[in-house]
Every structure is written in C-alpha cells, then in structure tokens.
Write a structure and sequence with these properties.
2 domains, ATP_synth_F0_gsu_mt, ATP synthesis, CF(0), 3 helices, single chain, about 80% helix, mainly alpha
Length: about 110
C-alpha cells in the first residue's frame, strides 16, 4: 500500500512540475505584452499632462450643459454605458477588497 502511495505521489509531483513548466512557457509572451502595456497605461499623469486633463474635464462639463452628449450613436452610447458599468464594478470590487468582506462594514 505504501509503495502505491509513494508511486502515486511521485506521479502527481512530476505531472504538476511538467504542467507548471508548460504553463510558464505559454504564459511568458502574454505576460511580457501585458507588462509592456501596463508600464505605459497604468502610470499616473505627469505634471505636463495636467492642462490636457483640465481641458478634457472642461469639454465634458460644457457638453453636459449644452446637451451635446445626446447626439451620439447607439454604438457609442452602448460603449459609454459599458465603460460606466466597468468603473462602477471596479469601485465595488475595491470596496470589498478594502473591507475584506463581501457583506457590509463591521460596525
């Protein structure tokens, strides 16, 4: 019995090791692409970018007041709605991570 358990354990370890190596070989190019994009997209804005950000918020405010946002296609409205849902979901996931609980705050 002990011999079979030892053989089974050796088999599991060898399969796990070979599977992990294969997974790392497959995942490496994808991770390199991800980190290349992350270095560009996930950095905070530099001080030189603040005027453009301020202008973008001003344009958003002006289009809201003038009603220009209503003149968009269904495709654009769907895309904007999906972006808003994504932002809301990230907020709620961040809240759950922050409080370490899915259900409410511990008061």
């Amino acid at each position: 019995m002990a011999g079979r358990m030892a053989a089974w354990g050796t088999k599991v370890v060898s399969k796990t090791t070979s599977g992990t190596l294969a997974l790392s070989r497959v995942a490496q190019p994808h991770l390199q692409t991800f980190w290349g994009h992350a270095r560009v997209e996930l950095v905070p804005p530099t001080p030189s970018q603040w005027p453009a950000i301020r202008q973008g918020f001003g344009n958003l405010f002006n289009s809201t007041l003038s009603g220009k946002f209503l003149d968009c296609s269904v495709k654009e409205a769907t895309r904007n709605s999906l972006v808003a849902v994504e932002i809301a979901c990230w907020f709620y996931v961040g809240e759950m991570i922050g409080r370490k609980s899915i259900i409410g705050y511990k008061v």
